[in-house]
Design a protein that fits this description.
This protein is an alpha+beta fold. It has helices at residues 3-12, 43-46, 105-119, 190-202, 229-249, 293-313, 319-322, 369-385, 403-406, 416-425, 428-431, 438-457, 462-468, and strands spanning 17-23, 29-35, 48-51, 65-70, 76-77, 85-93, 124-136, 138-143, 148-153, 207-212, 219-224, 227-228, 253-255, 269-277, 280-281, 335-337, 344-346, 358-360. Strands 7, 10, 11, 12, 13, 14, 15, 16, 17 and 18 form a ten-stranded mixed β-sheet that branches. Strands 1, 2, 3, 4, 5 and 6 form a six-stranded mixed β-sheet that branches. Strand 14 and strand 15 (280-281) form a beta hairpin. Helix 6 crosses helix 10 (416-425). It starts with a helix and ends with a helix.
Length: 471
Amino acid sequence: MDAMQVLKFAKDHKAVMADLRFVDWPGVWQHCTFPIDEITEGTFEDGLGFDGSSIRGWKAIHESDMLMIPDPSTAFIDPFFEYPTLVMICDVQDPITRQSYERDPRHIAKKAEAYLKQSGIGDTIYVGPELEFFIFNAARFSTGTNEGYYHLDSIEGAWNTGRDEAGGNLAYKPRTKEGYFPVPPTDKMQDVRTEMVLTLQKLGIQVEAHHHEVATAGQAEIDMRFTNLLKMADQVMIYKYVVRNVAKKRGLTVTFMPKPLFGDNGSGMHTHQSIWRDGKPLFAGDGYAGLSQLGLDYIGGVLKHSRACAAFTNPTTNSYKRLTPGFEAPVNLALSSRNRSASCRIPVYSPSPKAKRVEVRYPDPSCNPYLAFAAMLMAGIDGVKNKIDPGEPLDKNIYSLTPEELAKVPNMPSSLDEALDCLRDDHKFLLEGGVFTEDSIDNWIEYKKAAEVDAMRLRPHPHEFELYFDL
């Protein structure tokens, strides 16, 4: 839709409000709501102002004014508000220069797509993420000077088989690591996930499947049909919004934390990627697992820069509770077909050239999708441009390798602190085409170190009391 079509769309749906949204630096949607009469054709060019100094990691107080520029192609009617409300996703501009803000994640994603075309390698990058998440019945947590705790609960929790429940404990609770994927009554979230899918479909998002995931306590996955990078990043934000609000409506809560439970599988965001040109897939060929040389080179770039990309694809301290050996976590940087313990897997479900792609398995859903998708694309482009060899495929169980064999396989960082150091040492590939800037990378590292790494380092952990209180 263009501006005039959006205004007609709002009128046809009797919208009384317009909700403008943009994504902040860490990856959370922010919004401001206006009476619908405030949105005119000129709004799509002039934008509407907000205080950028109040957004995490953005402007200083003395340069706080910024503009939201609504993208008419993103318009939809909010499915949860009581009053009909038009929603649009916005780009962010500086009101003085009218230039796109270099720390606007959506702008970075747009530049990554433009750089792909500029490179001549292809004209489209298709992305298909598999977001996993937990649906809990309750979540409580708090930290302070003298305390720190969390408590999660689920009607499905394996720890609740002996609990006295209202109406009687009816059991059928998925055992630890056995949630993939029995039918109801063990799977108690079928109808919840279906409502999430139906809501996404109403908003024009194609969904391929939904199912229970491996962990106990309501771990779930809903898979969207692949689409181009920017549109998919927008859809990820809508997906998270829908999933959380459907859950809340049912008295439930959702988290995309990679590792909320100890001793069970964490939540990943396996991300399928392929490059096309003129409507034709470029990853299909006669090489390993049916890949073209371009596809292999792309994977070579992803593997080479994965430790740096981790700062964007696995951007929380909690991310590295998931990225540990076992639990199907792809900590080892290797290429394989079918092997789910490899960080880059080549799915072999279909022989069709259109289905040929790489599944990068280490990202998790706590990421900002605009930044994560852009970083992986830039790593892959670097691989194609410099013909980076992905190395020999590892078609055996990585976790059964001998120590000598395993020592030859590079691995992902073991902490966010290490990932940020890797980004500082290896980010030139991100600067190509002006996609990322030195300012945006430096700011990301500084923000993450101060707000998250140092904040975690300074706090006692509850388990430390069990280990050390009596020493």
